[in-house]
Amino acid sequence: MKIAGFDIGGANTDLAIIDFDNEGNIENIQTDFAFLPMWCENDTLQDVLIELIENICPLDELDGVGISMTAELVDAYKTKTEGVLDVVRKSNEVFNIPLAFITLDGVKSTEDIKKDPLKAAAANWIATASIASKIASDCIFVDTGSTTTDIIPVKNGHECAQGRSDMERLATGELVYTGTLRTNLCAFLDKIPLEKDNETKYYRVGSELFAETADIYMVLGLITEEDYVCNTNDGAGKSKIECARRIARVLCADLEMLTMDDIEELSENIHQAQVKQVAEAIDEVSKRENINTIVVTGLGKDIIDRPAAESLGLNVRSMDEFLTNEQCVVAPAVGTAILTEEFFRNS
Predict the structure, then answer these.
(1) Which range marks the domain in which residue 41 is found?
(2) Which CATH number belongs to the domain containing residue 16 in this structure?
(3) What is the pTM of this model?
(4) Distance between CA 249 and CA 245 in Å, rounded?
(5) Comparing C-alpha atoms, which of 223, 133, 2, 145 is closest to residue 16?
(6) Res 196 pLDDT > 90
(7) Strands 99-103 and 139-144: what pairing?
(8) Handedness of CA 331, 335, 341, 344 (dihedral sign)
(9) Is 134 exposed, middle or buried (0-12, 13-18, 19+ CB in 10 A)?
(10) DSSP-based three-state secondary structure for 216
(11) Does residue 322 belong to any structural domain of this protein?
(12) Which of 38, 142, 253, 274 has CA 20 to 30 A from 173's CA?
């Protein structure tokens, strides 16, 4: 059986196509993703879904499709219910093969989703939990993507998150709205230390859309231009020097006022501030659940998640024990395909 698993996010749509044998064992995994800003280009979703599949195989080779989503939150939709139903409608129009959706209550059919749309809202972490449990039956998986960080406890092989919706998880420490690429630096910064004239000074930041976290990690060499899949805040390019210009503006400065050494020092300090932000939430969930093993995944697994967990003295494992690094970046899509195959095989 060949199953396509999609994770349709607000900014990125991820795909994993998995070949399974008759007993549900994985034989092959292929992945792809596309930057799709659903807040302004949601009408192109169907074209992107088909294009992503056909980058890997002909559509008629598929036996089924599974979908998880977080795109319902974008401001193109007045409510999350409207967003879920729009994704469901477009998916059903484009696929005439068996289709299923990841929800907070497991995998459901289109008919079930229409009865209770909010069960499918931001449920992609349910799919990722299914992979984390294969690595450690008792763990907290931490998944930092381009925009957000999920921090989900797993006990006895099953997720046990206290929060269910995004809003609830923001209160329980299980969701931190911070990511590797698209996060405005001012979202987690108040002041930045920088050594100038042999003295470390703390500079308050300019609260504008000057730079994002992708700029920091480009300057530090932790991502490549190929990883920088989102738009830049000033519409310019993604080279190290262009990223540095955007970072300088956060201090209301430019590259005539700051050197590249200054920019690299700023970037490292900003990096550590984001690591601390994630560490605080991991610490909250770890202490509450009495779990000391962390399984990291996503684009930020080694950039943010691993150093955050290690700063707390926790045992860190990586989802790359089960998946490749490329597959870890789209782990919710992989988990979606796995859960969808189980659903179809047992139906």
Answers:
(1) 2-125+330-346
(2) 3.30.420.40
(3) 0.96
(4) 7
(5) 2
(6) no
(7) unpaired
(8) negative
(9) middle
(10) helix
(11) no
(12) 38
Residue 164: strand, helix, or coil: coil
Contact between 269 and 193 (Cβ < 8 Å): yes
Q: Give the whole-angstrom CA distance, residue 314 versus residue 22.
A: 39
Distance CA 239, CA 225 (A): 7
- CA 228, CA 232: separation in Å to the nearest integer? 9
* 253 band by pLDDT with thresholds 50, 70 and 90: very high
Q: What is the pLDDT of residues 202-235, one digit of tens each?
A: 999 999 999 999 999 999 999 999 999 999 999 9
* Rg, C-alpha atoms of the chain: 20
286 CB-contact burial (10 Å; exposed 0-12 / middle 13-18 / buried 19+): buried
Q: Which residues contact 42 (CB under 8 A, 6 or more apart)?
A: 71, 74, 76, 86
Mean per-residue pLDDT for 23-27?
Answer: 96
Domain-located, residue 244 = no
The secondary structure of 312-330, three-state, reads: CCCEEEEHHHCCCHHHHHC
| Separation CA 255–CA 105 (nearest Å) | 52
pLDDT classification of 197: cutoffs 50, 70, 90:
confident
Tokens found for residue 216: 């920091």
Q: What is the pLDDT of residues 257-299, one digit of tens each?
A: 999 999 999 999 999 999 999 999 999 999 999 999 999 999 9
Where on the phi/psi map is residue 235: left (φ > 0), alpha (ψ -120 to 50), or beta?
left
What single DSSP character describes residue 15? E
| pLDDT band (50, 70, 90) for residue 123 | very high
Which positions ≥6 away from 243 have C-beta within 8 Å?
Answer: 211, 214, 215, 216, 218, 219
Q: How many domains does the chain have?
A: 1
> Does the residue 118 lie in any domain?
yes
Report yes or no on 71 lying in a domain: yes
